[in-house]
Amino acid sequence: MKVKHKRVSDEQFSQCINKICDNLKNYIQENNLKIDYICPILRSGAVPAVYIANKLNIVKFAPIQVKHIAYKNGENKIEMIFNPFYSIKINKEEPVFFGGRGDAQHRYQF
Q: How many CA atoms lie within 13 A of 4 on its CB side?
């Protein structure tokens, strides 16, 4: 199967990041939130997460690593290879995590 890739210029990338950040700023203000951690899914999520974190002044990262595994017995699973939520020490009763899944952004509260 041939995979088609579309090159995105730095300017186009910046425009997308700015649009995402503007929407997030509005959502954060409307819901009176302070994001404590940004949680990118490693592989393709880390690069935009760094830009978003810088623009929104989110200092802490809790990256998640998942992998699709096709086993020899025919079983397919998506496994979480690295889950930071069990290892980071959070000194707040209800921290707010912001993470992404593909093109849909999600807010997590634990």
A: 1
